[in-house]
Design goal:
The chain is an all-alpha fold. The protein contains nine helices and no strands.
């Protein structure tokens, strides 16, 4: 019997796709189940729903492994499947994403990819946490998710491109629009309140 815990991700994918080996898929599940569950939980905010979604996501991963292209890391591809699956779930169930914000925008190791990011982060630090949650709750799913990827998960523009399957310019434009919406809602509703 093969010891799949010594296999690379790509070797596991090859074993699953070519030999339909469920033990190899079990190893992928072992490696990524907690990551998928935690991402689902962050998005749907319900433990039972996150568990159900994790199960469904791994079924989708299994049936879509033949489509996986090794140009991206398997972890990035699984991340994309997870986000997209959870967002589809929220759309179908007309639910909203609530993003946990504690320390999300206060990362001293954050690498800014454009000159406006530092200004944006500094402005966010001035907003009360309860107001910021309310503001993000009002944003469309696409805007919330891209902000979550960038500022909570600290993903690079390139990683977001891979997950959303859009060009770099589209990622930057979506980030800019989402940031502008956050600041516009804040300026309209809360700016004149005492901090």
């Amino acid at each position: 019997m093969k010891k799949f815990n010594t296999f690379s991700d790509q070797e596991l994918v090859d074993e699953i796709v070519k030999a339909k080996n469920m033990n190899a898929f079990g190893e992928i599940y072992e490696r990524y189940a907690s990551i998928v569950y935690n991402k689902a939980l962050i998005i749907v905010k319900n433990k039972q729903t996150a568990e159900d979604l994790t199960h469904d996501i791994f079924i989708k991963i299994y049936f879509n492994l033949p489509k996986f292209k090794a140009e991206a890391k398997l972890s990035t591809w699984i991340y994309a499947v997870t986000y997209n699956f959870c967002i589809d779930y929220l759309r179908k169930n007309k639910k909203f994403i609530e993003i946990p914000l504690e320390n999300n925008f206060d990362n001293s190791n954050y690498l800014y990819d454009d000159e406006n990011d530092e200004t944006f982060i500094n402005e966010l630090k001035q907003i009360k946490l309860t107001h910021l949650k309310e503001i993000l709750h009002q944003l469309p799913h696409k805007d919330k998710i891209i902000l979550l990827m960038k500022y909570q998960d600290d993903m690079s523009i390139h990683e977001i491109m891979q997950i959303l399957e859009i060009k770099e310019s589209a990622v930057k434009m979506r980030l800019k629009r989402a940031k502008n919406k956050v600041l516009a809602i804040y300026n309209e509703k809360y700016k004149n309140e005492l901090l």
